[in-house]
Amino acid sequence: MRPKTPRKCGRRPTRTAPCFVASRRSAGGRSAPTASRSRECLAFRAWVSGRPPKKSRTPSTTACRSNTWSSAPRSMPPFRGSTVTKPQRRQDAAGAEPEATSSTMHTQYEIGVIGAGNAAEGIIHGVLRNSVLLDDRVIASSPSEARRKLFAERFGIAVTADNRHVVRESYILLLAVKPQIYRDVVAEFADLVRDDHLIVSIMAGVSTAALESCFPGVKARVVRVMPNLASHVGAGMAGVHPGRHASEADLLRAQRIFDAGGKSVYIDDEALMDAVTAVSGTGPAYYYFFTEALIAAAQRVGLSPQYAELLAKQTALGAARMMLESGEPPDALREKVTSPGGTTAAAIESMRNSRVFEHIVDAVAAAFERSRELGR
After folding, report:
1. 374: closest CA among 186, 196, 207?
2. Is the CB of residue 166 less than 8 Å from the CB of residue 114?
3. Neighbour order of strands in the sheet with 198-201
4. What is the pTM of this model?
5. Could you tell me where the DSSP H helices lie in 160-304?
6. What average pLDDT does range 40-69 have in this prediction?
7. 228-264: pLDDT as tens digits
8. Where are the domains of the chain?
9. Region at 278 (left for phi over 0; alpha for psi -120 to 50; beta for the rest)
10. Which fold has domain 283-374?
11. Which of 40, 74, 354, 356 matches a 20 to 30 Å C-alpha distance to 104?
């Protein structure tokens, strides 16, 4: 056997222990879980193991619930008391630029919804899902107990049947009632509206001037919006037009609400808001109607109801995505599917003979005229 080589006698290099500050202790005798103590523990373990300390995951600041808009893009103004300057500002009839207003209101809620219907449901869903506002900063009113219960259970927001309470305690008023009854509803709380309020209307056909006239003695800041039902799934489309007293910041705040549920576009000429209503506001119903017919036709040629519905809906989704993502116009995409003498050509020819194209144009024109009638 080979003799063992004698080991050299020596000591490991001495490491100086870090200085630890005594942690505060709670009344029960246990150390309080402070951020400094967490860092001390990491440093101590690193000293024992000889490895460099890991970075602490303890945040330097404590997150808190804020009463202002969260995750605000840099291009957006703070929620209140701010103005935004654009290269070209809107001017009134005299050529003067509108003065910026500074809000002095101290309200419990940022958004107060008057009329908790399907349209308002989609809007609030987008606002809360994208953390534009916290649920404790939104309140909704409705005469229907069932709708109040739905909003409270689904969104966790405050609900009430008292419209006046909503107006007193809210900064933005989202008017989402039927246009046929809006004058009676607004008359309930018109005396409570002040210059500080921002009034966002999604009522079809009701002009900003008509709504401003409901608040005599007040320069009501009104923004007219026409959204659609697809905001429920984050794919909505809205046209936005500011009234004569609304500032640029008011316009951006309104757009931010509706961008949370899809997209929005600025409409310079209010007369075109009726066209927006007829195309995108009512538009989802046109696609639903066509899909209904496609499902019925699929069953007529032998498909089961389940397969008919699946095929029709998925085809609608695929066609919509192709139009949005390919960058090609609809007629070019249609021609790609249509082979001469093929099945698609036979279907298109049948629809042309039945004047389906013209009927769709007439339907949009009917919606446009009805929107104008509602505003008279």
Report:
1. 207
2. yes
3. 158-160, 138-141, 109-114, 170-175, 198-201, 221-226, 236-242, 262-266
4. 0.70
5. 163-169, 182-187, 208-212, 248-259, 273-276, 283-300
6. 40
7. 999 999 999 999 999 999 999 999 999 999 999 999 9
8. 31-56, 109-268, 283-374
9. alpha
10. ProC C-terminal domain-like fold (1.10.3730)
11. 74
